[in-house]
Amino acid sequence: MQKKTAYLVAVVMFFALGAPAAEKSMDKSGKMWTPIEWSLENPTFKGNPYDLIATATFVHTKSGKKHTTGMFYAGKGKTWKFRFTGTRTGKWTFTTASGDPDLAGKSGWVIVKPNSDPKIKGFLTTRGGKFARQVGDSGKLEAVRFNVYMNGGMGFRVHKKDGLKNLDAYLRDTKQYGFDTIFVIVANSWFKSGTLSYRQHKSKNPDPATFERLEKLIMTLHSQGFHLHIWAWGDEQRKWTPIGVGGINGIPDKRLQRYIAARLGPLPGWSMGYGFDLQEWVSEKQVGEWAAYMHRHLGWRHLLCARGRTHKELDVISYSHSGPKTYRDVVKVMNKDVKRPHFYEERFTYKRWNKYDMRTTRRHLWWYTMAGGMGSWWGFFGKGGNVYDPEKFKYPNPEQLLTCARFWNDRFLLDMARENKLSDGYCLKTKSNTRFVFYKEDAVSIKMDLSKMTGVQKAVAVDTLKPYKEIPLGKLKGENQTWKAPYKSDWAIAVGEFGKK
Questions:
Q1: Domains and CATH numbers, the chain
Q2: What's the DSSP call for residue 359?
Q3: pLDDT in the model for residue 5
Q4: What is the mean pLDDT of residues 367-373?
Q5: Could you tell me which residues come within 8 angstroms of residue 380 by beta carbon, excluding any fewer than 6 positions away?
Q6: Of the ranges 69-73, 155-159, 430-434, 458-462, which one carries the lowest mean pLDDT score?
Q7: What whole-number distance in Å separates Cα of residue 501 and Cα of residue 499?
Q8: What is the mean pLDDT of the chain?
Q9: In whole angstroms, what is the distance from residue 120 CA to residue 122 CA?
Q10: Which 3 state secondary structure label does DSSP give 149?
Q11: What pLDDT sits at residue 21?
């Protein structure tokens, strides 16, 4: 009788007070390489919201692949968010963890479906000494020719409120030269939108307004097959550093690093350099500490580098100087470390140092790929260093740069290696001896030792000084031979079956 009475009291109270509201489902679905976002309310929180630590861990049910990403304060109210991008199709489950009970213990699943858009790629990464990116529903890797383009010395002006207004024109400008990566410098706009110097603000927290513009830029670029290279900082002479905001890797700086990792980490299609003129203001140890801290908090690996630095925590070895004099100089640099890609992070802009004319620019682009995939940086400083003007500042022979890009589309492969002994020019070939690329300057003929080639393979020649046009060479036998050019030029020959243009 006593149990029955207690039960009836509980039922009466249940209907009197109302049944507890069912918690909203956190289950979602999406496509490969496309970010998904969740929001959580935290009404009881007090303190600095940018210091709250909370994470979400996603696990792929079939493979066990795991990504742990931080939550980030949305910038207003008491809302926190977290994001996820699938790197495999199928079901992923997730759980949240935090010392704050309102953000802890949440769970759900995500169904990741294939993405049919061929422009949508995955995260930039590396494979040995080459740049690479994830592609397709399996996340396999393809080689990338990493070439940054700018028009205006500080790149795209994302720190300005109207910074995205010229984006369509800027991308058309980038594309006409065959490039697919642009850059921005953020500096102290991380802390206060619209500023570059730490003397222009007193904030010690990340500014969500800057991140909103960066997110829009990254996702727009990604949807169109472009990448973004970010310079986190500038130089100390201009005070474009974190030195005046609690110091390098100080409390505000690490607060910012966590916020970058949580908010931008799940977004594909960007890489980050520490900044420029680093020799003036930051040590190798400090750069290594930054890279290690970022990698610990980034749920998805992003390429980090620092101009002129080689610290083991960096994904890419970067250089700051006026560039190589010969192809052999490029090879010598790349041979210093074959486990990481290399990047000339100095800006080899048109006519800079009276060096990078059309001929030099074109040939260097071919050298860097034929050497095995050296990254590089091109474009224009513009009037006064910073003015974007694609009509005034442009290459006189854009077709030459576009020809280079079109030739290498689907022809630069991860397993290609230098084999210059097979030619009187330069040669890259695959391990299987089924695909070869030969390149020679001022050539009327090219020697090609194909004696170890597997089977009979078709071949085409391209004049690198002209708009892209393939000259069919028929099917070549596996033997030592010489191709005679119709006239003298810088020629490239592709032998073997490659992907579609």
A1: 26-113 (2.60.40.10), 124-408 (3.20.20.80), 417-495 (2.60.40)
A2: H
A3: 41
A4: 98
A5: 150, 151, 152, 349, 350, 393, 394
A6: 155-159
A7: 7
A8: 92
A9: 7
A10: strand
A11: 44
- List pLDDT tens digits, range 10-30: 333 333 333 344 467 899 999
284: which residues sit within 8 A by CB, 6+ positions away? Answer: 309, 310, 311
Structure tokens that stand for 395 in this block = 């290459």
**Nearby residues of 236 by Cβ (< 8 Å), 6 or more positions away:** 243, 277, 280, 281
- In 10 A of CB 63, how many CB atoms? 11
Report how far residue 74's alpha carbon sits from residue 49's, in angstroms, rounded to the nearest whole number. 9
Element (H, E) at 72: strand 72-73
- Residues 412 and 259: their CA atoms lie apart, in Å, by 36
Give pairs for 73-79: CB < 8 Å, separation 24+: 73/49, 73/208, 74/39, 74/208, 75/208, 75/209, 76/208, 77/41, 78/41, 78/42, 78/43, 78/45, 78/49, 79/39, 79/40, 79/41, 79/42
**Dist. CA 79–CA 72, nearest whole Å:** 9
* Single-letter amino acid code for the residue at 327: Y
Residue 131: helix, strand or coil by DSSP? strand
Q: Residue 210 is inside which H or E element, if any?
A: helix 208-223
Helix (H) or strand (E) holding 290: helix 284-297
